Records
---
Amino acid sequence: MHRRIMAPGALAAASLMLAIPASAATPSPGAPGIGDPYYPAYGNGGYDVSHYDLRLKYQPATDELEGTATLLARTTQDLSRFNLDFLLDVSEVRVNGAKASFVTSGEHELEITPKAPLAKGTAITVVVRYRGVPSSKEAYGGFTSWHRTPDGGAAANEPEAAWWWFPSNDHPLDKATFDVSVQVPDGTQAISNGTLQSTSSRLGWTRYNWRSDKPQATYLATLAVGRFDVTTGTSESGIPVINAYSKDLGDKAGAAKASIERTGEIADWLSEYFGPYPYNALGGYVPNTDTGYALETQTRPYYSPRNFANGSNTNIVVHELAHQWYGDLVSVKGWKDIWINEGFARYAQWLWSEHEGEGTAQEIADYVYASRAADDAFWQVRPGDPGPENQFHLAVYDRGALTLQALRNEIGDDAFFAILKGWPQKYAHGNASVADFQRYAEEVSRKPLAALFGTWLFQPSKPGAAAARAASVAKVAGVPVQPKSWKKIAATNDVHEHEHKRDHEHEHER
Ligand SMILES: [Zn+2]
């Protein structure tokens, strides 16, 4: 796969340098990664994408996907060459209308050399024609984010899902708007994010045109093709809802619908804590996959049938919808900041438990602290910087939410809930880090919080009795009674991100 050849454009770049004023930097290749220490090859340097237009055709019988991706971007340096992250087979690339040369390199890199170097600040239109069978493309020796189903397939995973269906700058730091247009055989549906603008049928094929008009991270873009029961409605607050359920959910169909049909109600409930729902579309979808996890794909979370194996599961819906604010609206700066996604989505489940009368957040915090002994490996994971191998470790969730209860007790309910609501607005449609959150919490509460965050997010051992007393997260002596909601919350985790591919993948990457 490592076909690193001297691109023909390199010569063109050399000759054109003469035409560039001496003061200008020499055009150079964009970095093959955006600079995330957890995943050095993810994303790319040298440009910023503002919009993806994906015009695709998919044949469920053979899993063949073909089409054209048109990316609108702007260069952020004098650029001789740049990369996209992609796995399918590319037949042609054009940059601003002119054919560009390209090679594949590394595990998922598409290196593009435009005819002439691009000056910093240039608006570029990149057109990539491609085709392929997504299920035939594996990364890291066996791991895939394309979930083939008997009636189609679905792309959903974290932190990478785009490589299997569109070329991108695959990192949350480069968000963009999306138009996703997919042609599928009549009787089959194509589900994606945002609003269904229109559908049209011709010669046995139906085209679905989806639009996400607010910035979206690439891993939050999703595509599912299959035979779905689609329901539509409107939340009480006026947001249109589109849900889709595979026709093959069997005895899980009732439980899935009983949970996901409450999406509008749950989003409205969450907005009381997090502020107005940030998008103009809502929903959820359940393809006939068998993954262990669900995912907060923007406006329309992906759920696995396994989430509904034991009956209805509003807990998972609360978790994925909480991410619409914590994760999607405000995204991580780097993957080490995963706590600002998972700690808060978990805490939303604790608030839901309180709402349902199944145990207060305080009771759950007391239980988490007391039920795990000091020698439990759980406490060695630092939620504030867990390492890529532990990005989706249970501690990021449970110890992460425990941190929020400790913060709440330290600064009081008024400041705490002001922060929960203010944060999504402060960084709306952008990115933020754990350090940004600490700074913001200190600003709002007017309290120094370095010691609290240091203890609960960064200490590689169980916070001691004095710290627990100070944070009031061990209010009861011994191990308290297990909160009623505990098993349900724990179950969403079993199937949530636990089997997240990181486990297999990372060994390979190191
Ligand atoms: Zn999550």
---
Amino acid sequence: MTRSVVVKVTDVHKSYQDFVALKGVSFELHAGQTMALLGHNGAGKSSLIKMILGLIQPSLGEIQVYGNTLNASQQHVQLDIGYLPENVSFYEKLSGYEVLSYFAALKGVNREKVLQILVEFGLADAQHRLVKTYSKGMRQRLGFAQAILSEPRLILLDEPTVGLDPLASEFMYRKINELKAKGCAVIICTHELSLVEGNVDFALIVGQGKVLAQGSLNELKQASNLKIKIKSAALEQHHQHLNGFQSCYFQGCLHVDYGIKADVIRHITQHLGIYDFSLAEPSLNDIYQYYINQLEGQHG
Ligand SMILES: Nc1ncnc2c1ncn2[C@@H]1O[C@H](COP(=O)(O)OP(=O)(O)OP(=O)(O)O)[C@@H](O)[C@H]1O
Ligand SMILES: [Mg+2]
């Protein structure tokens, strides 16, 4: 099934006075896709999010949202974009209920939905308290509720799980997956790699303003060529029978390329009768470290 393109970023550059924050970023995001936007502090992630929203303009290149090219006069497309900023803040003299009601009125959402979402997000008991009395995690949940209130076709979440307890983070990703299933496109900018891993279709890793890598986790595993570790106590007795895979054996483990994983497993099960083994695949964190280390290597 081909799904419509929701965001198309083409060769985008962003400069702040003399400083070049982004140097030629391109990607496409389709309806029903989730993307992790990863990178070190100052890599340009929030700048990219703000450009997709139309809050700031690219210095060069083009951004299309729902097929429209963004420029300063096309604010209307923002109405159907949910946004959780990295430092979420609200008018502190309003209650949680008033904050959401305000956004509901702006987005044409009825009051019943406001009450429903407050309950769903565990904020029902605190709904009439002033937002200034909310904890960090409560503000974050209110911010997320605000971003998804109208079930927009595109949701941009800038560090959504900062300050959330483990169950609240899990709830947030469950909600993101529900919206994805309804066809929503989601960009999640985060430093919490283990949380986002398994919850996105692909990742875009930026470093010093450039795209270092992009693709699904499997594509990134292959592209980075990080080894998969196959560990088994039985390997110690049989490692001299590994034939062509002998050179992959050291430190008590087989260290194999993604592309030959199936062949190695076939060999150790069928020829050596080893079925009791564990597989350690590179994590998103390993992949991220690999690309950031490469970048640091290039710059000494
Ligand atoms: N308004 C601005 N004026 C000048 N420089 C800016 C401005 N906004 C961002 N920058 C610079 O652009 C670079 C990218 O910033 P950005 O906020 O996009 O990074 P980020 O990847 O979101 O970082 P973090 O992980 O810390 O949130 C940084 O060097 C930052 O100092
Ligand atoms: Mg940021």
